[in-house]
């Protein structure tokens, strides 16, 4: 009988805790919303990213002020973070195009990460779902790069939604499999 995760991979199994199923369901809900409202998901992704960059720039500025006031490079880093976030908030469509390119890169990295995860838990139950998730991310990255930047507004939200949906299904499948044991 094949176990969910081989005993040799108990450390990996421990990483999939009791919240795996809940996280999977949450990702499925968010992903579905992104698929049906891709423009809103695109703008939400850009605005959220811009605010994170802004907060990072402010925090880096505070850190620089407190610990290294004479470091020009640290002040430049803070200014760049705040400046880029400001540009994204002022012109979100350009931000969507930039995030679109970054998303394609993310999806490529996500695909290879999923392939590595599937390889590490193979032949245990659940490895197929991680492989399927990797193939999906690889296809999404390829499709995105073909139409970029013209289709960014639609595709950023759609792809964030699809990625969340497939991540959710993979996590839910693993969570359900672990729950049965």
UniProtKB/TrEMBL annotation:
<dbReference type="GO" id="GO:0005886">
    <property type="term" value="C:plasma membrane"/>
</dbReference>
<keyword id="KW-0472">Membrane</keyword>
<dbReference type="InterPro" id="IPR005325">
    <property type="entry name" value="DUF308_memb"/>
</dbReference>
<feature type="transmembrane region" description="Helical">
    <location>
        <begin position="127"/>
        <end position="148"/>
    </location>
</feature>
<dbReference type="Pfam" id="PF03729">
    <property type="entry name" value="DUF308"/>
</dbReference>
<feature type="transmembrane region" description="Helical">
    <location>
        <begin position="21"/>
        <end position="40"/>
    </location>
</feature>
<feature type="transmembrane region" description="Helical">
    <location>
        <begin position="72"/>
        <end position="90"/>
    </location>
</feature>
<keyword id="KW-0812">Transmembrane</keyword>
<feature type="transmembrane region" description="Helical">
    <location>
        <begin position="154"/>
        <end position="178"/>
    </location>
</feature>
<dbReference type="InterPro" id="IPR052712">
    <property type="entry name" value="Acid_resist_chaperone_HdeD"/>
</dbReference>
<protein>
    <recommendedName>
        <fullName>Acid-resistance membrane protein</fullName>
    </recommendedName>
</protein>
<feature type="transmembrane region" description="Helical">
    <location>
        <begin position="96"/>
        <end position="115"/>
    </location>
</feature>
<feature type="transmembrane region" description="Helical">
    <location>
        <begin position="46"/>
        <end position="65"/>
    </location>
</feature>
<keyword id="KW-1133">Transmembrane helix</keyword>
């Amino acid at each position: 009988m094949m176990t969910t995760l081989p005993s040799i991979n108990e450390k990996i199994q421990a990483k999939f805790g009791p919240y795996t199923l809940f996280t999977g369901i949450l990702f499925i809900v968010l992903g579905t919303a992104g698929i049906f409202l891709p423009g809103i998901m695109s703008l939400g992704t850009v605005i959220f990213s811009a605010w994170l960059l802004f907060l990072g720039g402010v925090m880096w500025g505070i850190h620089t002020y407190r610990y290294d006031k004479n470091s020009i490079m640290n002040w430049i880093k803070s200014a760049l973070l705040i400046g880029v976030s400001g540009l994204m908030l002022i012109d979100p469509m350009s931000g969507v195009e930039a995030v679109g390119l970054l998303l394609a890169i993310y999806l490529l990295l996500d695909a290879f990460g999923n392939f590595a995860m599937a390889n590490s838990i193979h032949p245990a139950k659940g490895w197929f779902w991680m492989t399927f998730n990797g193939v999906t991310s690889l296809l999404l990255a390829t499709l995105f790069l073909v139409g970029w930047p013209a289709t960014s507004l639609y595709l950023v939200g759609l792809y964030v939604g699809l990625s969340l949906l497939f991540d959710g299904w993979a996590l839910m499948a693993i969570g359900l499999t672990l729950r049965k044991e």
